[in-house]
Design brief:
Blueprint: E1 4-9, H1 16-25, E2 31-37, H2 48-62, E3 70-75, H3 79-85, E4 90-95, H4 98-114, E5 119-124, H5 134-142, H6 153-163
Parallel strand pairs: 1-2, 1-4, 2-3, 4-5
Helix pairs in contact: 2-6
């Protein structure tokens, strides 16, 4: 399994839901590229460089996942252009609930129109993590709540520093 799998997202911040999807992706490929979007159209809590560090700390330090199998990058281009750059024909997307499906379905269709060699694969996080969203995690921590069940220790530290 040499094909690179591109897992694009904002990861603002990374959650256990994202991490479930990354771990499950190893059944598809041994080369996962976590691609952190730096679009001008979105407002982020953490800038792209901060999000890269947070994701790397969560994956490599907290969870001890392999740096050889997971590459973390940023991108400002179309995801299909990122696929071309990394010689990938697979985009990985995570689904939490039925409400995610319509948007993800449209996105997959647009990516397919842009490059018909690219397939989008949808994976679901484990049941206990399907309710987690980065927005909920940010809101909970901003209100002083406990987020240990939602993300890694280093991510919690980064969030607390941002809100203190």
């Amino acid at each position: 399994m040499k094909n690179n799998v591109i897992y694009p997202g904002t990861f603002d911040p990374i959650t256990f839901g994202h991490i479930d999807v990354i771990k499950k992706a190893f059944k598809i490929s041994n080369n996962i590229i976590v691609a952190i979007s730096d679009s001008k159209n979105k407002k982020y809590l953490f800038d792209a460089d901060e999000r890269v560090e947070i994701v790397k700390n969560a994956l490599y330090h907290d969870l001890k996942l392999s740096k050889k199998k997971i590459k973390v990058v940023t991108f400002k281009s179309l995801t299909t252009n990122l696929c071309k750059k990394y010689k990938s024909n697979i985009i990985l997307r995570g689904l939490r609930a039925v409400s995610d499906f319509e948007y993800e379905f449209q996105l997959a269709g647009m990516n397919r129109k842009l490059n018909n060699n690219i397939e989008t694969i949808f994976l679901m996080s484990n049941v206990e993590n399907q309710i987690i969203s980065s927005n909920f995690v940010k809101e909970i921590v901003s209100l002083g709540g406990d987020i240990k069940k939602f993300t890694t220790k280093s991510t919690i530290k980064a969030l607390k520093l941002k809100y203190d």
